[in-house]
Amino acid sequence: MPYNPTNRPARIIDAHLHFQPKNPHFDAIAHTAGHENTVRHVEQTYRDLSIAHGVVMGNREMTTEWHTYPPMLSFCAGIHQHALDPGNSAAALEACEVQLTNPQCVGIKLYAGYCALPLMDKAYIPYYELAERYSKPVAIHMGVTASPYALLKFCHPLLIDEAAVRFPSVQFVMCHFGNPWLMDAAAVLEKNDNVAADLSGLLAGRVDLGEYRVRLHGYMDQLRTWIAYVERYDAFMFGTDWPLVNLDEYIQFVSELIPQEHWDAVFYGNARRVYQLSDLPG
Ligand SMILES: [Zn+2]
């Protein structure tokens, strides 16, 4: 289906971005994607592209001053390896609980793979219990990593299955649809109603979509195939992984993976429900 720019999702929530203004590393990545890493630029780009809200995956320290965001953004408290180390774990857990009382904090983010622990490790269990108590989702990095030092065996989507079974009242989010383990990711989503997936990070940098559609048609077909196989369009959420991609191009890319009758759910409604963004229009 050729993309028609006049026919695009009318409203969007970006269910997965990273946001660190004044960080030179982020500045460089944003530039590569044709963007600027500033609050003003994100606000303007969101307005231009009808993105009503974004959910930041927290990369920073857990302290409150690290988590100040403009009103168009919410965030998930990010749990990194140092927070899981035995010497730090009690304090980190306490700090995470403080974050969950902040109305702008809409969930917990685990960095599986970047953290060298299986998802059912005892270090993670208190975070599932915390999510249960506060009725907040747990988003988990799944699939290929940006760092060569991460370990893929800890971010295979099949690992979410056991967490989802042991904590049936917790809403899990499989980030990046476990890419490229799409078949396994689809099995986990099909089986577990309490697992959703975000469609962020499926591209990086700038792409010429016309050329990409031809060169990587097999990859795009695989994405379409396994998303359709799950038969749960209430379980997929648009996300960008900003500053990794050009937002305009990425909206086009994802809209080609999702049948148009499900655009409003995938681009907007599902993220509003999963991250409980009840201030946004339903
Ligand atoms: Zn990310």
Number of domains: 1
Helix amount:
25-40%
Order of helices and strands: EHHEEHHEHEHEHEHHEHH
Ligands in the structure?
zinc ion
CATH fold name: TIM Barrel
Radius of gyration: 18 Å
Number of strands: 8
Q: Looking at this structure, what is the CATH superfamily? A: Metal-dependent hydrolases
**Main beta sheet strand tally, sense and closure:** 8 strands, parallel
Notable characteristics:
single chain; 282 residues; alpha/beta; TIM Barrel; 8-stranded parallel sheet; 8 strands; 38% helix; 13% strand; globular; binds zinc ion
Short description:
This protein is α/β, with parallel strands linked by helices and 282 residues long. Helices cover 38% and strands 13% of the residues.
Describe the structure.
This protein has 282 residues and is α/β, with parallel strands linked by helices. The protein has one domain: Metal-dependent hydrolases (TIM Barrel), CATH 3.20.20. Helices cover 38% and strands 13% of the residues. The protein has 11 helices and 8 strands. An 8-stranded parallel β-sheet has the order 1-2-3-4-5-6-7-8, sandwiched between helices. The longest helix is centred in the C-terminal third of the chain and has 14 residues. The chain is globular, with a radius of gyration of 18 Å. 43% of the residues are buried. The site of zinc ion (ZN) has 5 residues, from loops.
Topology (SSEs and partners):
Layout: E1 12-17, H1 24-32, H2 39-48, E2 51-57, E3 73-79, H3 81-84, H4 89-100, E4 105-110, H5 125-134, E5 138-140, H6 158-166, E6 172-174, H7 182-191, E7 195-198, H8 209-215, H9 217-230, E8 236-237, H10 247-255, H11 263-274
Parallel strand pairs: 1-2, 2-3, 3-4, 4-5, 5-6, 6-7, 7-8
Bound molecules: zinc ion.
Residues 16, 18, 57, 201, 241 line the site of zinc ion (ZN).
